[in-house]
Model the fold of this input.
Amino acid sequence: MYWLRNSGSYGRSTGAIAIAVALCLSGMAIADDVEQKETDKTVSTRVEHQLRRDTGVDLEKIEVDVSQGILTLDGSVPTLLSKERAAKIGETIRGVRSVVNVLKVVPSKFVTDELIRKDIEAAWLSDPATDSYEVTAEVHDGVATISGDVESYPEKRLCEKVSKSVKGVKEVQNNIMVEYESNRPDVEIKADIDQTHHYNAYIDRTSRIFTSVNDGKVAISGLCGSAAEKARITSDAWVAGVIEVDASKLETNGYLKDDDRRKEMYPDVTDEAITEAVVDALLYDPRVSMFNIDVKSDLRRVTLKGEVDNLKAKRSAVQDARNTYGVWYVYDRIQIIPTADVTDTAIRQKVKAALERNALLNGSTIDVAVKNGIARLTGTVNTYFGKAYADDVASTVYGVAFVNNDVNVIYTDIGLRYQPFIDPIYPYDFDWYDYEPAPVVKPDGEIEQSINDEMWWSPFIDADQVTVSVDSGEATLTGKVDSWYEREKAVENALEGGARKVINKLEYVD
Done:
């Protein structure tokens, strides 16, 4: 049984009404006309609907426009992370082919360039994955230019991600150079990219993706199911030895049929292949790659054993395994053992500083206490989204073995849902993430229709393979899915549709 508080009836009801009105004006019903759903007007309405109910984005100052499937976001947001989050949300809507993001970042509070620079470098130093990188930052009018040398593209991307989390940053220009230890043959690079794409659970139509490599320059063409999937395909192509990735000829089509799906082309995934894929995933994750983690898959259930020196590395390893195609369950046997002496006082100071410089937590009131490596967070934040980010930020500090998150949430009626293509955080592992079912606010028939509509709009689910039934607000899902992530996405859609509880009977079938 699987249940969570749904994400707020206001956002869902308003969005559903807006969609219904738009479709009624055109004289067509939601469930009957695929062509009308594909129009720019309805796609735009759907984007606004998703942005409105997301607690990490404020729609008030965002203008949404869709033309020929190209989504343009204009207006202003308070943080760079919010700007990127808005674009990622747009990418997950069926019918969006690409996103043009011209949102301006206008911080809610003024922060000097010098303080931003110091905070960026402090963030790198306090993060166990970036503390040894030889990188520097310069800041002018809130625009951070980061430079230096790293050994892989994931390391370069991680430096950028950490920089973007600092309050006051309006933009990051990443001039970090990747210094590969040796040149790799093109054929080896291509095989690595194909393997990475195939075993990524977020990439669902590998039979339609074509990759070529010439002198380390990668060209990707073909079809994928969404703009979000295209972004993931492009990002994953940056394996060792790659100097350029061009995915301009990779088109999006949210209506790819079942016979195009990966499971039809690759029906057999052995435990040995899964083990190898997870090992490779851990090697490409800069938060995990420096640790020796043993991986074993048995009946698609992966066990991870080993030692790491921070909580974020442990969580990242588990998530890397979950994101691997074919994995059905992950047993976490990883231990957190600091490799150097660090006092509770030092840990507390670093956690406190990390929380204070984080852009998304700006304005929150959070205090920290640490005992035996266990960080206890208290204070208040507005939403569960903020509470989850506070938990995640604390986990990145060296020496933190566990986070006891006692932060109070002001708006408890606004839930938190996991969105794989958007969120870097997997909240279901948090010990505090446990809600009572929300009351039924809509008739069963209306909830069922809303759930079916949510699944239709998602480019990540084969809606015709999932059967939904609702009784007293409790939704039961039956049918088949071909990945762990798709199964969870179906649950999310059911909650978004208004279910107070979800019983997930979807079968994972290759």
Summary: Residues 9-25 form the longest helix (17 residues). Residues 1-34 have pLDDT under 50 and may be disordered.
